[in-house]
Amino acid sequence: QSEGERNFHVFYQLCAGAPSDPSLADLKLQGASNYSYISDHDQVVLTGVDDKAAFKDLKHSLTACGFSSAEQIDVFRCLAAILHLGNINFEANSAGDSSIAGGTSELELPAELLGVAVEQLQEALLTRLVKAAGRSAVPK
Q: Could you give the maximum distance between any two Cα atoms of the chain, in Å?
């Protein structure tokens, strides 16, 4: 990646545009600098780039491509869940397994956004699956 460039522009656009969009209030998004996946470099804000306007353009483009408002909200819910999941910290316990630092309350919003139970999301994040010699994956 060259200096002055960012990856995954949609995350920055979503963080800039969603907070002022009442239909996206459930995403509970803040500025891009609040999310680990996109804030750990110096390019959160680019000179000459209006992420809020780009988000508006994105929504118009999705509409032009035939995405309904409900489908667009579903896409934005998934993207917001990814951002929120990126802020979750894991820790090893004495048995060598992982747990969610701060407890399962950290999973409530991402689970809600993804439409799954907290327990399901926790299991998906913490269960290692091992597949050996062509056999089915088994939890480890």
A: 53
